[in-house]
Amino acid sequence: MRYESPSTITDAVTLLADEPGMTRVLAGGTDVLVQLRSGMAEPDLVVDIKRINGIYDIAEEAGGYRVGAAVSGAMLDEHAGVKAAWPGIVEAACLVGSTQVHARATLCGNLCNASPAADTVPPMIAAGAIVRIHGPNGDREIPVEQVATGPGKTSLGKGEMIGSVFLPSRPERSGDAYLRFIPRTEMDIAVVGAAVSLSLDGDTIADARVSLGAVAPTALLLEEGAAALIGSTADDAALEKLAALASAACNPINDKRGTIEFRTDVAGVLAKRATKIAFSRAKGAA
Amino acid sequence: MQIHVATKINGDETEYLCDPDETLLDVLRDRLGLTGAKEGCGTGDCGACTVTLDGRAVCSCLVLGAEAQGREIGTVEGIAQGEKLHPLQRKMLEHAALQCGICTPGILVAAKNLLEKNPDPTETEVRFWLAGNLCRCTGYDKIIRAIMDAAAEMRGEAA
Amino acid sequence: MAFDEYDSENRIFNAVGTRPVRPDGIDKVTGRAMFGADMSAPGMLWGAVLRSPHAHARIKSINTSKAEALSQVKGVVTRADFNADADEQDVLDNCMAGEKVLYDGHALAAVAATSRRAAEKALRLIEVEYEVLPHVTDVDEAMQPSAPVLRDVGGDESVPDGLSKNVMSMCEFGHGDIEKGFAEADLVMEKSFKTAAAHQGYIEPHACLASLGADGRGELWVCTQGHFYIRNLCADIIGIDSTQLRVVASEIGGGFGGKTTVFIEPLALALSRKTNRPVKIMMNRSEVFRATGPTSSTSMDIKIGMKKDGTMTAGLAVNRFQGGAYPGAPVDMGAMCSFACYALENVSSVGYDVICNRPKQAAYRAPGSPMAAFAVESVIDMMCQELDLDPVEVRLKNASKEGTKASYGPRWPRIGLIETLEAAKNHPQYSAPLGPNQGRGIACGFWFNHGGETSVSLALSQDGTVALSVGTPDIGGSRASMCLMAAEELGIPYEKVRTTVVDTASLGYNDVSHGSRVTYASGLATIKAARDAKQKLCGRAAKIWGIPEDAVVWEDGMAKPAGHNAGQHEPLSFAELCGDMGQTGGPISGHFEATPEGAGVSFATHLVDAEVDPETGATRVTRYTVCQDAGKAIHPSYVEGQFQGGAAQGIGWALNEEYVYGEDGRLQNAGFLDYRIPVASDLPMIDCEIVEVPNPGHPYGVRGVGETSIVPPLAAIANAVSRAAGVRMTELPMSPPRILKALKDQDG
């Protein structure tokens, strides 16, 4: 295995594109090193992107924030602006693993690892976040929900890497939230995750996006569930409708972490609970 | 081919050669003789290998040795000042907050890092900060009390 | 004074009962303490172990030539490199498979190479041809006559007809007439229970450094609970004389019973012998889960009869424990513990020892008792609910006490169960109000405790200080307790005693640090060795004074003439006598070697408040109190530590910990990510009430405390959760999916 730590995105892309064997991009490393250690992956080249200029930046852009690929959960948590705008995303980033993992793990890494249970993916999908991909054929941008294509699989091509994720601006009276179910209070992989982002017109939900994690091969964008919320005041009827739609949308598996039945039931419960938090945040933000 | 790394460990300029796929934990333990950081899992799930990297607590099993180039590492061996124990070390002993002691180095590094950022944490904040530091012996009770007590002492409050 | 007195009732203690800093403390907070993996040697190689991916398979061939061809590889061993005539054939087979692999993770070859990663990579070049066989991992399935059979020999003559050859033995305890007892009851309740296998979960993986010459002489550095015992096992398995192997116990990063046997140690020795270089092996976490001993998974049926006033009239327990691929599940101990807390006239407890395709179980803190208590204490709780009785009062009414007959045979000496129940009843938690979705559980537990072979040596130094050598590895602060007991007995400050866990060449045989025996047995031995030393000091005083030895007594830390006839002599202090040793007859050491038989049993009562989220099945333990009889707490902080640690492990076992096997017989959760031990944010503070009912079998009244603390939690938490959720939970762990399903099934 070769280890390289280029100082520009262009160099990183060239290294990744030119390597004929298996490559891994090393950002926070909290997944890549586990793969190395277990023998699950034996890359020929690891490209450490943390020495790329600007890769740790959190920059204001068009009323939103562009978050560099090496920005850790802890750095997001220390950024007042991002935390105020997208508390659900920041909370999700600080749910991934331990304090020690928050210090390293990144949004883009969580996304590229393509686990169906990735905590930060549902809230990024709910937020309408866009990733910027750099590759041998230039740059492109796609919504977060188009990155993972299945467990451990992404739509990134040979030589491509994500350089940043853009968290868009949002109207006044908006709020988001992410909740996950785990058996312990910390340190587990999500058995179910639910993220809701919404904006209010008065006390009525004017716009909403709902995303579920760990209940299908990739995180789900729940358009029908969002539609059930829009026009409501997050009242019980709307929440029950959302819960039913969330459960219906699940396509989970039985595994060591949970049963199909459990995941399906709890997806509805968490969708409701996350909506309530997002709703109260939106009201409080006014 | 091995990689040459120049870094700073517990304030000391240090150089080493490591394999590209070698973890910082293995470098510390097997190349530098700093065996205070322990391998409990090798997957970032137990915290026994906790060190600081540029001031943040990390699992050294999830860092490549090569990544330490030009950075600053802090390990349990660097917590005491000469023969003077850090208040956290002293309180861990006074509260009998360790039984076997294998998790203790990681807990000390993580707790010290917490108190540098938050000198007055609540019990809940301490518990969540340390959620990645597994202890199988104590049930955490005396560890939490020791850290709260050390924090109070460091703030100048009577224990 | 007499040199053999047991005066714990009236003695006023000076050192004992205080809470000094442990002698190994500074090493452990500065990173200096040397654990199993922390030792290295010049020229050292690293070993790695090839493990079976199959639950059950015949090994048709192993080809190691490609691995051996690597330049970094210096040696490979397989079963042929071990002692075919070893006495401990099961231990050998578990360390290194012979004809068959019997579980996922079973070792079948080991490599020594110049680095750990090189050794691991070399494993992938070893070619093994398997004939995969049908497997079974569930205890109830393994007992069926149609189950795949692990060993053709089958069980012994105690096994009833009609059961699988996987049932190795049956045991039965009890007395009276249970049918008569059930007939006398107003309420008879029967229920079945299951518990999953739980791992000890020590944070330090097994690690050792071996150096062995072709002449059969060698050294072994290892994290173990019993270096004398594993010396004997290793010598047997690799075919050398036991005393030619010197074993040094490193600091040990947790054991809980799981480090009382060998796994990698004989492999490292064999590799060292073959390569003529020191070899270090350190398991990774996955290996720890796959190949070292968890405890048994169990299936149990309980039937209890009770009168309306809460008097228990009869109890029946049928316990089925699987112990992995070899006989030895702790079902006999489970069966003995089932009803130990209660004075029953009619009682029967039966046990079946079953093998299946899982790793060989190893002891885990009070082996067998937590599961047995879970089942029995759950049924008692159900009956309390049914008859509307207070669960503490019912237990007080039936509690075992001095003079009643234990369900497994003996009459109880002085015991403290009632005192622990009273402590629980009087604890503020017992009367505190509960919130919505909360429930309170209570349960009692029992553990035998153990004496075991014990040898200590206590050497006096000219400056009046003491070097105490013990042979029981310190797994929870025992060096502090030994220092306290030596200081107490000699009347010198705690700091003047240094306790060392010495190697196997330095003392006679010492049984393992298990059975909650160290503070009891090594403590007793320390006290007796100190008394031996004092007697010798009296002899020196007699010599100095020119009077008979029996005219000298030891009082207040000094030798004094015994009465007027002995003459007028200024008392001689401990330090003065030590200073003069060289002139009065030479060095003085106190010794004690014996197998003390007076280990006092210990009982506990635990109180738990738990909250259940009815929509997700998530459980949170909100409050916890341990009331346990310690006999006499030598170092109360470490007694509390044992109470709290046992409770925390019990919480994990009750709620989340389990071995999950796939259809393929492979372990699905061989890591701390999915084998979920409690983290700091999962637990409340754990309150401790140390009850002290002295053990008449120890000079200071000590009872072992390490194991009893894990006996009540499974039941106490199940009772709390069942009351909080409004549905009885009969299978552990009570994971959220199980609780949610139970709630839905009840509604449905």
Compute the number of helices of chain B.
5
- Main sheet: strands, sense, barrel of chain C: 7 strands, mixed
Structural class of chain C: alpha+beta
- Strand numbers in spatial order across the main sheet of chain B: 2-1-5-3-4
Topology as H/E string of chain B? EEHEEEHHHH
Radius of gyration of chain C: 27 Å
What integer is the average pLDDT of chain C?
97
Word description of this protein:
The complex is a heterotrimer of chains A (286), B (159) and C (748). Chain A has 286 residues and is of the alpha+beta class. Chain A contains eleven helices and 14 strands. In chain A, the strands form four sheets. Chain A has a five-stranded antiparallel beta sheet. Chain A has a four-stranded antiparallel beta sheet with strand order 11-12-13-14, sandwiched between helices. In chain A, strand 12 (192-201) and strand 13 form a beta hairpin. Chain A is globular, with a radius of gyration of 19 Å. Chain B has five helices and five strands, in the order ββαβββαααα. Chain B has helices at 24-31, 87-94, 104-117, 123-129, 141-154; strands at 3-9, 12-18, 50-53, 56-59, 72-74. A five-stranded mixed beta sheet of chain B has the order 2-1-5-3-4, with helices on both faces. The longest helix of chain B has 14 residues, at 104-117. Chain B is globular. The N and C termini of chain B lie far apart (54 Å). Chain C is built from 21 helices and 27 strands. In chain C, the strands form six sheets. Chain C has a seven-stranded mixed beta sheet with strand order 3-5-1-12-9-10-11. Chain C starts with 24 loop residues before the first helix and ends with a helix. The mean pLDDT of chain C is 97. Chains in contact: A-B, A-C, B-C. At the B-C interface, helix 1, helix 2, helix 3, helix 4 and helix 5 of B face helix 1 and helix 19 of C.
